[in-house]
Design a protein that fits this description.
It contains 24 helices and no strands. The protein has 414 residues and is mainly α. α9 runs parallel beside α11, α10 packs antiparallel against α11 and α17 packs parallel to α19.
């Protein structure tokens, strides 16, 4: 038994020594390989940089054919270059990929049995951006593996040709919610090209795809979609009208103020709410009277969005909110107070209590009295306790009824 235990110990020790040697050898081999790759990259980078900034095919710049191990280096060099440059320089890089056989290699790998190989091939074809990859990629839009389908869609978006984008627009017809979200994100990244293809196909899309298309227009903020969006303000479906109003406001173009002001009177409250939010993004003042009317709307979302829109209108909007404090509609006045507080105007009015100007003090007192009537005294109470100026704390306390004024205080306040 003793001999067996000793042999077992020696065998275990030998195993761990062998394992350590294997680890050290593997690490040393990897370091040697990495040094070789770094050295080879130093040799290749100047060649490819001269190529992309020069003329002639890639073969004229290479003194000898690429080694099989150079494939990874070539991809790294060109992909790193593609992150910082576009235009003609990247067109030259794409041409090199095609002439060196990279595009053909990844097109063939799309047929691989391993889904991870297909996914990698789709991703690389997207980075390269060659139009030759469009049709092979389209065939895998229905790949049985979801990860492959996602990468194929992203690749088509990066290629960005009308044909590639048309297939992505067709993918919006898929009733699956997650599919629409993913494809929508890809079309957003495609920019103006995606807008054009969506506008062309809009009339033939099912309802859920139309909704997705309008949301894409809103995210891209393209003026190209504005003629269609203006038409959609008259659509029979209130959800379409609401989204179209929001998309028009997202452009920030004040020329859309008039149709959006009309949408503020839409019979559907969701349209009025989205129109109010949209108008708040426009730098114009013509909508202020209608927004004030919306503060008296029966629906809370309309009132809330209208008040926020007025806050976004700057000084004129703040003046309109102050005027709404005199409204007979308590809800409108309450909404105005909330926005004045959020915009900082309420702090300014409180500061006027310490003004040496009698008119400013009187305006501030009347404003505070209105807040007390509306029972919006939370901020006033906090300021009465914590405001840095003692005179303002005293006057707020008197307004709130927390203390009785002395004869001198009464004279100063009036």
């Amino acid at each position: 038994m003793y001999d067996f235990i000793v042999a077992l110990i020696w065998a275990s020790a030998g195993f761990f020594v062998l394992l350590m040697l294997l680890i050290l050898v593997n690490k040393a081999w990897r370091e040697v390989a990495e040094r070789r790759l770094r050295k080879r990259r130093v040799q290749l980078e100047p060649i490819f940089f001269r190529y992309v900034t020069g003329t002639g095919p890639i073969e004229e710049h290479l003194k000898q054919p690429l080694r099989p191990s150079d494939r990874v280096l070539v991809e790294e060099i060109f992909f790193d270059l593609g992150r910082v440059v576009k235009g003609s320089v990247w067109e030259r890089a794409r041409e090199a990929f095609e002439r060196l056989g990279f595009v053909d290699h990844y097109i063939s790998r799309l047929q691989s049995r391993g889904w991870w190989y297909r996914a990698e091939a789709a991703e690389k074809l997207g980075y390269i951006g060659s139009e030759r990859g469009t049709q092979p990629l389209v065939k895998h839009m229905d790949d049985p593996v979801g990860e492959v389908r996602v990468r194929v869609a992203r690749a088509l978006g990066r290629i960005g040709t009308p044909e590639a984008l048309d297939y992505l627009v067709e993918a919006l017809r898929d009733p699956g919610r997650w599919s629409a979200i993913r494809v929508g994100g890809i079309l957003i990244n495609a920019g103006e090209g995606g807008v054009e293809r969506l506008m062309k196909a809009y009339a033939t899309l099912p309802f859920h795809a139309r909704v997705a298309a309008i949301d894409i227009f809103a995210r891209i903020r393209s003026l190209k979609a504005s003629p269609l969006l203006l038409e959609l303000l008259e659509d029979e479906n209130s959800d379409i009208r609401a989204r179209a109003a929001f998309a028009l406001g997202a452009t920030g173009d004040p020329n859309f103020a008039e149709p959006l002001i009309g949408a503020l009177k839409d019979p559907a409250w969701a349209v009025r709410a989205m129109a109010a939010k949209a108008v708040g993004r426009l730098k114009e003042a013509a909508s202020i009277p209608t927004l004030c009317e919306c503060l008296q709307d029966a629906e809370w979302w309309v009132r809330a969005n209208a008040a926020e829109a007025l806050k976004n209108k700057g000084e004129k909007g703040s003046q309109a909110l102050l005027g709404m404090l005199e409204s007979d509609d308590t809800y409108a006045a309450q909404q105005a107070v909330q926005m004045l507080q959020e915009s900082g105007s309420l702090d300014g009015m409180i500061a006027q209590l310490g003004s040496p100007d009698k008119g400013e003090r009187q305006a501030s007192l009347e404003f505070m009295a209105r807040l007390v009537m509306l029972r919006r005294t939370d901020l006033l109470t906090e300021m009465a306790l914590n405001h840095p100026e003692a005179s303002i704390r005293e006057r707020l306390s008197i307004v709130l009824g927390l203390r009785r004024p002395t004869a001198w205080q009464h004279q100063v306040m009036t």
